[in-house]
């Protein structure tokens, strides 16, 4: 093994947390990360869905670059998102936002504006949950 920590190692979780500690630094100021072990959630909010889309695309591109620089890879096939908002706001979303990750074309369109749950995973990293809060 050239890189990594053997699975099941007693020090593995602690060393992993130290390894990923700087991930939140690649996010925009308005994006809030929530990290627990190898799972990460990022959330952003605005009253403008276009601003949300632009911010999230920048953040996800930054995350993809961070993963690459840290020798981790992104599994785009498991990348989805959830939009949270009032019934009135959600009714104004006529199409899924055009969200992309790194050089990947777009996230799977398995969620709708009114409901959905999503995550994206990086092998040996865990799960990312992306929440879009539409005020």
UniProtKB/TrEMBL annotation:
Q: What is this protein called?
A: Uncharacterized protein
In terms of domain of life, where is this protein from? Eukaryota
* A Pfam short name: RVT_1
Per the UniProt entry, what species is this protein from, by scientific name? Paramuricea clavata
Q: What is the lineage of its organism?
A: Eukaryota, Metazoa, Cnidaria, Anthozoa, Octocorallia
Q: Which InterPro entries match?
A: RT_dom
Record-linked PROSITE patterns = RT_POL
